[in-house]
Amino acid sequence: MTDPVYVKDLTKTYYDESRGPVHAVRQIDFDCRPGEIFGLLGANGAGKTTTLRMLTTILKPTAGTAEIMGYDVAEEPVEVRRRLGFYSATTALYPRLSARETIEFFARINGYPASGTPARVDELIERFGIGDYARTRIDKLSSGMKQKVAIARTVAHDPPILVFDEPTVGLDVLNALEMQAILTELKAQGKTILFSTHIMSEAEKLCDRIAIIHEGRILAHGTLESLRERTGAHYLEDVFVSCIKEVS
Amino acid sequence: MLRLSDIRLVFFRELRGALRERSIVINVVLVPLFMYPILLWLAYTGLSFVIGQTENFTARVMIAGDLEAGAALVRKIEEAERVTLTDVASPRDAIRDGRLDLLVELAPRDGGYGDDFEVRFTGDTSKDRSRIAIGRVEDLVTRHRAAYLEAAGRDRGLSGSAYQMIWIERENVSSGRDMGRFILGMAVPVLVIIMVIVGGMYPALDATAGERERSTWETTLTAATDRVNVLAGKYLYVAALSTTAGLLNFAAMSLSMRTLMAPLLGDRLQSVAFTIPWAAVPLIVVVTMLLALFVSALLMIVASFARTFKDAQSLAGPFVTVMVLVPAVFMQFPGLELTTWLACVPVINVCLVFREAIGGIYHWPQIGLTLLMEGLYIWVVLRIVAAITRYEDIMTGSYEGGLTGFLKHRLLRRTP
User: What is the complex's ipTM, to 2 decimals?
Assistant: First the structure.
């Protein structure tokens, strides 16, 4: 059986009018195994978001391959999107739709069967405690409420793979903790989760395996234990710094 | 690959959102239904007031020269209504300054029958008052001459009819319905076309630049459907609202034209019937839809280079102005017909088909050509959309240049 996420020599080069070609991601390799949380750990501008945007087919790779459940991100983007849910701070909700309408729209457009959609929407409303404001317009909701709706819309079509790009950025401690609890729960349901962060403690707490990404390259990847062994450092922060020092 | 169910989902998602957005509802429904009829009514009422004021003013006339030569005419001018005689030091300067409306100079004429005299009018035809004063006094002079001729003829044993030679008879074959259609044809097409453009503008900007500003564009791009379905859903939504605005305005204008024209037509209103032939309605609907499809695609292209709704408004402003002004100017000419050449000019061709259909005139070859050309223009614009959206940074909204820069550096040079 192939891994849910398989990435080989993935490269992204932007063309900038003033700067010319910009190499955002350079020949990275990694894979995610079924039911694990895989963390992409890196500083701002390291290439995490670009990598995730390629895997979610928002961007097209310049070179290399990436497969989601066996579907190539460049060749079969619709099949790929059908099998994953993408959550990010840049993927806002439609402000004029209600929470229920939002979840329903994403369930339907992502291929969830029409006959099962109402029950699925009810289930998610119940699961995320959205019931009190399910019929309220998104622009009237608090950020915590929006966060719940955003997660519900991400999982609306019940995809096997979930991609979270810095999901706790901008959240207060309680909401960040709730997000972490949700990720753990989704993992327990058997979802494969690809997750990017620059917060070391978060990666340490949640991830089964971690890839350290810096200037578009993956410097090291493996379990926290294997990274500790490799660098001789205990804390993830030190592991991270040690990996960067190795290459600079 | 096109998937109708996904297009429908995107279309209704956009529509649902739009119906909850006050500015869109105002521009697409309320403005076409109420604002234009109300504005027109105010304009026509104001116009009829101004015309009334102008027609009823008292003209200031100075008579100079040999008053004895035309004493009888002078008396008539003195007695005329809405004419007052005045005397100024420098009449030509007074006319230029607007203190005097007309100078009438009388002089004996040599070589006539003894009592002939010359009348010279000096006025300023760039001024309404002066023009009207000339008309009034000229009318008095003409009637005075006719009375003189009749009296002279009578003295020689001739009846008035004996020296008429030419008898002018007038007959107007246009019915009240024709007059109504003429008036509708002059006013309605331009307003409907303006509404199609204005009605499409807000949804087009909202569905593109507005989404970017709200950071929902990337959310939309994660939907598991081909991007062509997302674009098609949005495009059809914009075109639908644009068509709706145009047709609502058409209905509102057609139904309220009688009331709108009442202040201007006065008593003549009873003889004018404002009806649109039912047979014209399908053609009007079709050309309105085609125009909406064309305009919507253009607006979406322009707006796709903007990062915020405000940016998009600035970008679309000049484009909308040209699109509105060109037909507005062209349609000022009542004699303009749908010729083969004009059937090839976008927007103008639709205006003319619209006007002729209201008047019950159908130049079918030109109408066919108009439909064909509009279809061709829509196809060309959609091809441009397809070429533009192939660029990833345009599609994701990260392109930082403008429309002109894009055309120059990308489309023409084919930079990746």
Answer: 0.91
